[in-house]
Write a structure and sequence with these properties.
With 603 residues, the chain is α+β, with helices and mostly antiparallel strands. It is 56% helix and 11% strand. Among the domains are: 8-141, Acyl-CoA dehydrogenase/oxidase, N-terminal domain (Butyryl-Coa Dehydrogenase, subunit A, domain 1, Orthogonal Bundle); 162-286, Butyryl-CoA Dehydrogenase, subunit A, domain 2 (Beta Barrel); 460-590. The strands form 3 sheets. It has a 5-stranded mixed beta barrel with strand order 4-5-12-7-6. The structure holds flavin-adenine dinucleotide.
């Protein structure tokens, strides 16, 4: 039975049956303290928290107590502190961290499921704790023992919160242009000066401290990415007596955003009074490399947000479509008969199936990436390397598919509501606004697409792509053992071959040094790669569903669940996969119209 915003049954199916989390907890010492029963209890607990602490405030946080700076104080919704407390006390901020640092050594896959539950209930309310988790992990991975001792306990207990502070007015997509400066005071301590903009959860009126993991350039450092260092810059620093004193990080203002209003996006000014201290994390000039750990995690998190909002929108429109009556079947126009529920109309079914295909396809993709992360932590040698490369390849896809297609999914969800979808009487308009940011922050779709084609597919002579293709082929082989799935296995096999051909064609430009041409349509290459990745995830789900139908003799809701998986897989192959024809045609076409510099043709 699906909750109002997410289906736990679906998450369990994905986690246990499709992506086999038990293999991790059985085979690897690091995860051994968890088992299936415990994991299921954790998901139930996450759902209870979501039901009680998050979902009831979803619309309220959009309409009231929207963060604003007043007299130097950034006020947030009064329930936010309680949510942070619940997340900290439940161990969710440090869930994946080793036990010795107070964590649970939870597989990321499980944590991602919990995140999907929380985000589906109230996505805007989750940033304070989620960003604290990510930024503390940076200190854990790269910080000195002194930094770890001072910050980690405070952050994992939710007393101090954390942010990622990268963006500047002149350095958004291009972080090599970061200008915030750092000047040595002594040891690890530097004076920080500059401006950061759009910093999510960058200020509040309740936490004892906020630690901004900040990119800055040490005076005299080389230009570009090789001269960027990482600093922990607290809102309040400790004086020689251990008392917290003001650290000259000022909130210049909170942006007035389209959605996700529960979290402020702040403009922060560092060192207006020349009295802002930052503490170097790791080695000088390696900041961007370190920050990528946080950014990669955050990119997967954005995928989670996309899948979660899609899920909430899907269950809202599914319910509405069963309750709302309008018109009659095309074959039965008798006005004396009662109108039918709109779910009986083909176009409404199409919209719902699209929502389900995008939502559950995204969720499966996210867990595929989570599993790769978990394996990359515990495997050794070549196998570890493979898992890490595979994760690297999947990360931009996890960022892009659930966000770009999530917008389409929520838009279709809104459409199911007809005119009511456009009103504040229903939550879809808010979900649509909340969702819109996901293609922008953490690297826009354009930037992710260039990363996929220009870096990930090409790296190590295509080694990561080979791992990807091996895994897809394994699913194709498994699907081929079921007569009903053979047709779809064969479609995917052909499409993958075409993708490889298109990739070769595009890489020939790179080999000739024609890089502008090579990446001009990277966005469309991403779209193609995404469609086939999700087709793979759907074939994988359908294969498991088919096996379950053969071995478990399911009845009632269980049978419906598996049948619905196979039906949605077919929908994806018949309605989404054919788009690959247009995309391949465009990508193989050598006439590129978007690189015109000598004339002004866009007027
Ligand atoms: C609500 C919100 C929350 C945010 N939270 C944070 C946060 O917590 N921490 C943080 O550091 N930042 C945060 N950001 C900033 C966010 O990451 C940036 O807005 C984003 O990276 C894009 O940068 P920009 O806005 O400067 O756009 P630009 O970089 O100016 O991009 C504008 C357009 O040009 C395209 N473009 C730019 N460069 C290229 C290129 N080389 N090739 C092709 N196309 C290109 C982009 O794809 C985009 O379509 C947040 C932003 C928002 C709106």
């Amino acid at each position: 039975m699906a909750n109002k915003f997410i289906s736990i049954k679906n998450l369990r199916f994905l986690l246990h049956d499709v992506h086999n989390v038990s293999q991790l907890t059985n085979d690897f010492e690091y995860y051994k303290m968890h088992d299936k029963e415990l994991i299921d209890i954790m998901l139930d607990t996450a759902l209870q928290i979501a039901d009680k602490e998050l979902y009831p405030y979803f619309q309220e946080m959009d309409h009231t107590h929207v963060p604003e700076v007043k007299d130097g104080v950034t006020n947030v919704h009064p329930h936010i502190p309680h949510i942070v407390k619940v997340m900290a006390e439940g161990g969710w901020i440090s869930a994946t961290v080793p036990e010795e640092y107070g964590g649970m050594q939870l597989p990321l896959m499980v944590n991602l499921c919990a995140e999907m539950i929380f985000q589906a209930a109230n996505n805007g309310a989750m940033f304070h704790s989620a960003l604290t988790s990510g930024s503390a992990k940076l200190i854990l991975s790269f910080g000195s023992d002194k930094l770890k001792a001072e910050y980690l306990d405070n952050m994992y207990s939710g007393k101090w919160l954390g942010t990622m502070a990268l963006t500047e007015p002149g350095a958004g997509s291009s972080l090599s242009d970061v200008k915030t400066s750092a000047e040595l005071v002594e040891d690890e301590t530097y004076k920080i000066n500059g401006h950061k903009i759009f910093i999510s959860a960058g200020d509040n009126n309740f936490s004892e401290n906020i630690v901004h993991l900040t990119l800055a350039r040490i005076k005299g450092a080389p230009a570009g990415t090789k001269g960027i260092s990482l600093f922990a810059v607290p809102k309040y620093r400790k004086d020689e007596n251990g008392n917290l004193i003001d650290n000259d990080v000022t909130s210049a203002g909170a942006y007035h955003k389209m959605g996700q209003k529960a979290t402020p996006a702040m403009h922060l000014a560092y060192g207006d009074k020349d009295n802002c201290h930052g503490y170097l994390v790791g080695e000088k000039n390696k900041g961007l490399k370190y920050m990528f750990q946080l950014m990669n995690g955050a990119r997967i998190e954005v995928g989670v947000v996309g899948a979660a909002i899609s899920s909430a929108a899907y269950y809202a429109s599914l319910q509405y479509s069963k309750e709302r009556t309008q018109g009659r079947k095309i074959s039965d126009k008798d006005p004396n008969k009662a109108p039918v529920p709109i779910i009986q109309h083909a176009d409404v079914q199409r919209m719902l199936l699209l929502q389900k295909a995008i939502t559950e396809g995204s969720m499966s993709l996210i867990l595929e990436a989570g599993r790769a992360y978990d394996l990359s932590k515990v495997l050794e040698g070549e196998e570890k390397n493979k898992a890490a490369m595979f994760l690297d390849l999947l990360t931009p896809i996890v960022k892009v598919y659930p966000s770009e297609e999530g917008i389409r999914s929520v838009s279709n969800g809104l459409q199911v509501f007809g005119g009511y979808g456009y009103t504040e009487d229903f939550p879809l308009e808010q979900m649509y606004r909340d969702m819109r940011i996901t293609t922008l922050y953490e690297g826009t779709t354009g930037i992710q697409s260039m990363d996929l084609l220009g870096r990930k597919v090409m790296m190590n002579q295509g080694a990561a792509a080979m791992v990807f293709f091996e895994k897809v082929n394994q699913t194709i082989e498994e699907a081929n053992t079921h007569d009903e799935l053979k047709k779809y296995a064969s479609i995917l096999s052909e499409e993958i071959q075409k993708l490889q051909k298109t990739t070769m064609h595009l890489s020939s430009f790179a080999m000739k040094g024609e890089f502008e041409l090579f990446l001009a349509d990277a966005n469309l290459y991403m779209e193609l790669f995404c469609i086939l990745t999700i087709a793979w995830q759907w074939l994988k789900q359908a294969t498991v569903a088919k096996q379950k139908m053969l071995t478990d003799n399911p009845q009632g809701d269980d049978l419906k669940f598996y049948e619905s998986k196979i039906h949605t897989m077919k929908f994806f192959f018949h309605y989404e996969v054919p788009k690959s024809y247009a995309l391949n045609t465009r990508l193989m076409d050598t006439e590129v119209l978007t690189l015109v510099e000598d004339k002004e043709l866009i007027v």
